[in-house]
Design brief:
Number of strands: 16
Structural class: alpha+beta
Bound molecules: adenosine-5'-triphosphate, magnesium ion
CATH architecture of the largest domain: 2-Layer Sandwich
Largest sheet: 8 strands, mixed
CATH topology of the largest domain: BirA Bifunctional Protein, domain 2
Shape: elongated
Strand content: 15-25%
CATH superfamily of the largest domain: Bira Bifunctional Protein, Domain 2
Number of helices: 16
Radius of gyration: 28 Å
Helix content: 25-40%
CATH class of the largest domain: Alpha Beta
Length: about 425
């Protein structure tokens, strides 16, 4: 019986991987410029971390977790998101004592969702968290960094921004919203009805078309923020204006979890269809304390790499691939031995090169050179070794020029070009 991959968990093949390396290298480079440092936490955590850190009321914890008992001893799970683990590590290793921290992570996340375009069971996120700064300047800097990141990759995505208030202004609003939604139960879908009591804010986020016209009229928290939340929100928009970051304030944008306060934001792209969000972020000041740490404000975002890859692919152009500069073709045994030595020499000089280790017919070796997209071919054999001269063949134009073997490395070394 043939064994296939697990549903919703994808292989990433060499033809596509260049795009992923590009998004990861760009993240490392750019986030580093902003003072964020990488943190790597395990893929497996205690189930309780997410029950508390994401919330038992959420779809993630109720329906989507890959949880298992480790030999009947402990309830563990594959992480469904990155923030809870980073917060746990932050607390466990006492990083707060050093002052504000800016951290980023990359890696696989697992949610047992129904697989569809842009939604998988193993997917990958690039995320950041900034701890220890309650001031809106960090919100501005972080949002601008994500904007900068997408721009570097040539991605056009729309930024939506909102404030979801805090413990001072949200409870009274939620009571009103519950009552308002309660009067319109018949017009709302089953999911919405189920959420009116548990998580009314999340109702505003419903994507069901028949719910849209109703929810468009719902009362907005943005107009009822307490003075502190209002000042924070104004400072964020003013900061983004000053940096020239375009955004649209959207009173219906929410983050589903209770510990989110004030700033909520999302980047979305039309290229994605129904799963339009490529990255979502927000401020979660109560979270560190909820997970047993000292009161520490925090704000972060997570970006879905599969969705970013879809946008990049839709924008056209194949994924970048590294092609060999030089391909050694061997005419005989002596040439094959020399090819290994010369290839090693070129690689030490930083030149990508390759050869067909099977040897054999010249035509087959040239075919292999073309298949891997090599730029130049060099044929080596007893005659070339004796004369110290070989022919350098331009595989695009088929032109040949003589080259001294001793000059090969210098001819192709990056510094020489
Ligand atoms: P959505 O509303 O699309 O389900 P979410 O609110 O569950 O998103 P977050 O938990 O905020 O998403 O995760 C941040 C990002 O991770 C999303 O914007 C998306 O790009 C990506 N993402 C989330 N779930 C998946 C998934 N199952 N497959 C692929 N990417 C995902
Ligand atoms: Mg989701």
């Amino acid at each position: 019986m043939k064994i296939t991959g697990v549903k919703g968990m994808n292989d990433l093949l060499p033809a596509e991987v260049g795009r992923w390396q590009q998004m990861e290298a760009t993240a490392r480079e750019l986030f580093g410029l902003y003072g964020y440092r990488e943190v790597r936490t395990p893929v497996v955590e205690h189930h309780a971390l997410f029950a508390r850190g994401v919330g038992t009321d959420t779809d993630i914890v109720q329906k989507e977790m890959y949880a298992f008992e480790d030999k009947g001893e402990e309830l563990l799970c594959l992480r469904p998101e990155g923030t809870a683990g980073v917060v746990r590590a932050f607390i466990e290793h006492g990083l707060h004592v050093e002052g504000p921290q800016k951290l980023y992570y990359l890696g696989p996340m697992f949610r047992r969702e129904r697989p569809q375009k842009g939604r998988y069971r193993q997917f990958h996120q690039i995320g950041v968290e900034a701890f220890g700064t309650a001031e809106p300047a960090i919100d501005v800097e972080q949002i601008a960094m994500l904007d900068d990141y997408l721009a570097r990759l040539g991605v056009k995505a729309a930024l939506k921004l909102n404030s979801v208030g805090d413990a001072a202004c949200r409870p009274a609003y939620l009571a009103d919203l519950r009552a308002w939604l309660g009067e319109r139960r018949a017009e709302l879908c089953d999911d919405c009805n189920g959420r009116i009591e548990r998580n009314p804010l999340r109702v505003l986020d419903c994507k069901v078309p028949t719910c849209q016209p109703v929810l468009a009229r719902a009362p907005r928290l943005l107009e009822r923020l307490c003075p502190a939340c209002d000042a924070h929100h104004r400072a964020v928009t003013a900061g983004l204006d000053a940096l020239g970051v375009a955004y649209a304030v959207d009173g219906r944008l929410v983050r589903g979890l209770d510990y989110y306060i004030r700033t909520a934001y999302e980047f979305s792209s039309d290229a994605l269809g129904a799963q339009s969000a490529v990255a979502g972020g927000g401020r979660y000041d109560p979270l560190v304390e909820t997970l047993g740490g000292p009161p520490t404000p925090g704000i972060g975002f997570a970006l879905g790499q599969e969705r970013l890859a879809l946008i990049l692919a839709a924008a056209g152009g194949p994924a970048p691939v590294r092609r060999p500069e030089v391909f050694f073709v061997s005419a005989d045994e002596a040439g094959a031995r020399e090819a290994l030595v010369r290839a090693a020499e070129l690689r030490r000089a930083g030149v990508a090169c390759d050869l067909d280790a099977r040897g054999g017919k010249l035509a087959r070796q040239f075919k292999q050179a073309e298949r891997v997209g090599a730029r130049w071919a060099v044929v080596l054999g007893a005659a070339e070794l004796a004369s110290g001269q070989a022919k350098l063949k331009d595989l695009a134009t088929r032109e040949e020029t003589p080259v001294a073997l001793s000059a090969l490395a210098a001819r192709f070394a990056p510094a020489a070009r």
